[in-house]
Amino acid sequence: MERKDILEKDTWNLSLIYQTNQDFYLDLDKAKELLQKLSNQKDSFLNTVNEFLQFHEDYIQMSRYIQKLHCFAHLHCDVEPNHQEYQTMYASILTFYDQVSSTLDFYTVQMIENSEKVQSYLNNDLLNDYRYSIQEILRQKKHTLSQEMETLLSKTTSISDTSSQVFDALRLEYDPVHINGEEKFLNSATLSEFLKNKDPEVRKEAYHNFFKEYKKYENVFAATLSGVMKKDAFYADVRKFNNPLEASLFDDNVPSKLFFKILEKANKEYRPLFHKYNALKKKVLHLDTMYNYDLSVPFVKYKTKKYTIDECFDIILDVVKVFGDEYVNIIKQAKDERWIDFYPHAGKRVGAYSSGCYDTRPYILMNFIGDYNSLSTMIHELGHSCHTYLSCHHQSPVNCDYRIFVAEVASTVNETLLIHYMLEHASSKEEKAYFLYELLENCVGLIYRQPMYADFEHILHTWAQEGQPMSAQMITDLYMKKSAEYFGEDVTMDEYVGHSCFYIPHFYYNYYVYKYTLGMTVALAIVARILDGNEKQREAYLHFLKSGGSQSPVDLLKDALVNPLEDQLYDDAFHYFEKILNEFEELIKGTD
User: Ramachandran region of residue 192, left (φ > 0), alpha (ψ -120 to 50) or beta?
Assistant: First the structure.
């Protein structure tokens, strides 16, 4: 399918950001003027509290332009990668961002060198909005270098991001999959559908046709992935952190023990439960050999429904009404104003995401194919978008951006509520079993798979820190080994499993994946309490959505009544998985 074949109503309306390309360049010019103004204040912005405030107001305004410009350009490029004017826009904003980094490299150094004066300014009510963000800057004192070194580091930004940019720019094409003699289009969205096909040859062909392309370019992907790991290790070392993990966690102000706690729970203490689940799959599917690409086959005799976009909205609006009118109206606005780009087509970026800022709508990219996964993805991304919308409408531009550490909470709460809704409305034993299965799969993806990814990523970071080589063979062998440990003895690894690591974009996000597990454990606690009618939890959660980045991520979650530092939170999540696994096993007896 080509983009021109898709109805306008099913594409996002980016004219709400800029009506013309000329408007884009007018804002870019305004941002450049502000950068020059900020540069001119280098030797004076700390003189008085008013000059200090003016500098920060100018900086925030420039940042708003940058975020708006970046959003417009990257959204266009993700659906029209061959449109050279949009590529030029994207390159322009990336180049300007590098200029900002190098021009303002004096800021953090001077702030820390004059920390006592800065602290005195923070007592002034004029700086109330800036207090938390500036205190976060002062917290960097131990890891801030000399002015000369900071200037040098700022000039490496464009070089250090090359690996990620190459990965994002790659667009692979896949051989079609054959079903009943007909060729079917294969991409990341349709792959998941093919892997549910009852014909093992279809599953195998889809999996092989998809991942053989990653093997074909294995040296390219190994270079980009190892490049990101080396970049993270380099900056951690230069900034005097003990390791890349510590450097990554520093921004969120959380201890390393939280990361290892999650890995210990998922990869050791509770992994036997996952192996039990896989053994059940093998038994129910009557497979002598069960490959990893067989694991998505539904093993409940229930004909899954196909959903139109309108039907998805109707269900989602029913699910989220528990949050009240303000939340419901945001979902309606998303539909009416065309925040979502729905359908897959040639050249479109794979997967799904929500992306927006203070001065744009929180847009959503999808690859909608009308199955339950599309519905689930839609409510997931709308969770992100509602979080962004509420943060931007209840916080100032200074404090509206929430950290990645808490980003997956809102989306996972929505997904989990959806499954509970489906279970509640199930009209048969088979339908209930199907959605219990979906709930199990959702838990597996978030509380088991992501910690496995995190373990793999941590090893690669350690290799980079130690200066070990990272060839395609080493990387794929490691991923094959970790996958075998993860799935257990009842699952046979296909020859392309090792190369599937090159497909996962989150490995380029510097210790991101474990945060999905955090999001799931927190979401399970929130959903369970809300469904039990706990009004205090509901109000605390909505307050969390409106709080943006006004506090540290841990404090935000504590205020939401879910403390991520408590062991019990994670134990409860894995016990919940065990509970629904036992319920599912009992329910499917006799359904074969």
Answer: alpha
> By three-state DSSP, how is residue 363 classified?
strand
pLDDT digit string, tens, across residues 388-436 = 999 999 999 999 999 988 998 999 999 999 999 999 999 888 889 989 9
Please return the burial class of 548, using the count of CB atoms within 10 Å of its CB with bins 0-12, 13-18 and 19+.
buried
Selection from 421, 443, 378 nearest residue 584 by Cα: 443
CA pair distance 31, 96, nearest whole angstrom:
9
What 3-state DSSP class applies to 177? strand
- Paired with 184 in beta bridges are 177
Q: Structure tokens of 305?
A: 């429904």
Helix, strand, coil percent content, the chain, rounded in steps of 5: 70, 5, 30
What residues does 67 pair with on adjacent strands? none
Residues 6+ apart with CB under 8 A from 164: 224, 228, 508
Q: Is 269 in the active site? A: no
* pLDDT single digits (tens) 298-311: 877 777 789 999 99
Distance between CA atoms of 10 and 218, rounded to whole angstroms?
Answer: 35
pTM as predicted: 0.83
Which amino acid is it at 394?
H
Cα within 13 Å of Cα(564), Cβ side: 32
C-beta separation of 353 from 367 below 8 A: no
Q: At 395, list the tokens.
A: 């916080």
Average pLDDT over residues 447-451: 95
Q: How far from chain centre, in Å, is Cα 255?
A: 21
Name the active-site residue from 381, 438, 441, 457.
381
DSSP assignment letter at 499: G
Could you tell me the maximum CA-CA distance found in the chain, to the nearest angstrom?
78
Tokens of 230: 């080396």
Q: What is the mean pLDDT of the chain?
A: 94
pLDDT of residue 588: 86
363 - beta bridge partners?
Answer: 355
DSSP string across 233-254? HHHHHHTT-SSHHHHHHHHHT-
Q: Please give the DSSP secondary-structure letter assigned to residue 179.
A: E
